[in-house]
Amino acid sequence: MSASFVTLKLATTLDGRIATASGESRWITGPEARQAVHRLRAEHNAVLVGVETALADDPELTVRLDGYDGAQPARVVLDSHQRLPVTAKLARTAGDIATYVVCGSPPRADLLDLGVRVLQAADQGRPSPRAALEALAGVGLNRVFIEGGGQVAASFLQAGLVDAVEWFRASMVIGAEGRPGIGDLALSALSDAPRLKRVDVREVGSDLWERYERI
What we know:
Organism: Phenylobacterium conjunctum
Pathway: Cofactor biosynthesis; riboflavin biosynthesis
Strand order of the largest sheet: 6-5-4-3-7-1-8-11-10
Low-confidence stretches: none
Distance between the termini: 24 Å
Number of strands: 11
CATH architecture: 3-Layer(aba) Sandwich
Largest sheet: 9 strands, mixed
Domain Bacterial bifunctional deaminase-reductase C-terminal: 5-208
Number of domains: 1
Protein name: RibD family protein
Keywords: NADP, Oxidoreductase
């Protein structure tokens, strides 16, 4: 089993928010930044979100670039209790694009019927980030692109499993009531904070793209 490489993508306001308090997030960043995200998806073999993101945004998580004819990355939902509805785009298109639910309970028959592949990575509980990566690596998915939400980002950072961060920052401010790009890390000291090294910064349209690597 090969080691996983994990990239965390953030698309936030200047104050680190990914949505308003009501959940509105389309679109914080501009079209150039979104095209860059599609190119990054194509460099990974799995795109991962938490179930809250899947429920709120109903995303496709596909590579949509003019002229792109490469493989689509697998879509992965961290979903402890298999709350992904059969009406979700991810479930409805699972027969065409590999789609996984990583959970802590036996597979739901209606998800299996649609072609969703269920990986039970915990026993009736919430799979840890490390357990989720091990389950994905077991099916050959070892380049993982995390796209949300805030608590998923925090859990992988807290576990020390993020190898790279791709941060797209828009020139707007939402305020403290907005939803944070990174959830609670429960830090008691600065020395406990995850630290990364910035390796690149560039403009993409009206947004800023900052790239970081694990130290």
